[in-house]
Amino acid sequence: MMNYPGERLLEAQLEHYQQWYEQARELHDRGYYDEALIYYDKALEYQPDDYWVWYHRGGVLEKMRCYGEALESYHKALQINSHSYWPWYEMGCIALEELQEYERAIAYFQSALEIRPEDYWSYYKQGEAWRKSKHYEDAIACFEKALTIRSDDFWSIYRQGDVYQEIGNLEQALCFYERALHIKPNDCWSWYQRGNILQKQGYLYAAISSYRRALEFDFENDIFWYEQAVCYTLLGDINGAIRTLEQAIFLIPDKYITLVESKIIFAKMREKEEFKNFLQTAKNLLSSPKNQ
């Protein structure tokens, strides 16, 4: 059967499109994002209204940290298929995590939820956008909705601990961090946040114990050592304060020497001869030639 010139041209265009698109996907998957973008653009020369090319092109631009262009590409994909969930979700993540444009993120996730009303991640991410914009009741409502979909999810529980800590409801915050630890008992940051709450409530030995648990899972985290030192200082335990500050200073010398010299919480400790000697030794070590 004879092919007419128009049919042959269309077949050639489809063949060229497929070649450029497949090579773009391979480059994309292998992490060659600059090259993948060139190939996606070549594919668009042959099929300018292809949803998947615009969508994957947005993904490449996102990985290249070209967030404005990524949003434009996702929007273009939505002009072709407005009922697709993924561009809305990806745009929400960019607005939330990269641009810190929380109202915009909320709107994007809401559009995603209109397409997938039982989507856990869109509720969770929208809750994060509400939390970061300090709309705490809305944040809690989103996290709770997420938990109706995934009842034992660590992140929606942990973030509610953050919300209650930020609004000063320490008892509720503690409950949520402990719930999070029932799900992930080896999560260092839940132990750390639990320690912070206990410290604020005045349960200093319990706070130290919690920070120690955090260190079991991240021994070289300077802040876990430092917060123990704060607790020991509040208890008037100079040996405990020095022992834990030594570790924090070893990890980040400049930061913690400055804090110890300036923070009012260490004022009484700085009056003690043993503490003065410790601090001077730390400063001497920092200024020694091998540390320059």
Question: Could you explain the architecture of this structure?
Answer:
There is one protein chain. This protein is mainly alpha-helical. It is built from 17 helices and no strands. The longest helix has 26 residues. The termini are far apart.
Write out key terms for the chains shown.
single chain; 292 residues; mainly alpha; 17 helices; 0% strand; elongated; disordered N terminus
Instruction: Please give the count of helices.
Output: 17
Structural class assignment: mainly alpha
State the total count of DSSP E strands. Answer: 0
Which term fits the overall shape? elongated
Residue windows where pLDDT falls under 50 for at least 5 positions: 1-12
C-alpha termini separation: 81 Å
What portion of residues belong to β-strands?
Answer: under 5%
Arithmetic mean pLDDT: 93
Sketch the topology as an H/E string, one letter per element: HHHHHHHHHHHHHHHHH
Largest sheet: none
| Helical residue percent band | over 70%
Radius of gyration: 27 Å
Task: Outline the fold blueprint.
Elements: H1 5-30, H2 33-46, H3 51-63, H4 67-80, H5 85-98, H6 102-115, H7 120-132, H8 136-149, H9 154-166, H10 170-183, H11 188-200, H12 204-217, H13 222-235, H14 238-251, H15 253-262, H16 267-270, H17 273-287
Helix pairs in contact: 1-2, 2-3, 3-4, 3-5, 4-5, 5-6, 5-7, 6-7, 7-8, 7-9, 8-9, 9-10, 10-11, 11-12, 12-13, 13-14, 14-15, 14-17, 15-17
Question: How is this structure best summarized?
Answer:
This protein is mainly alpha-helical and 292 residues long. It has helices at residues 5-30, 33-46, 51-63, 67-80, 85-98, 102-115, 120-132, 136-149, 154-166, 170-183, 188-200, 204-217, 222-235, 238-251, 253-262, 267-270, 273-287.
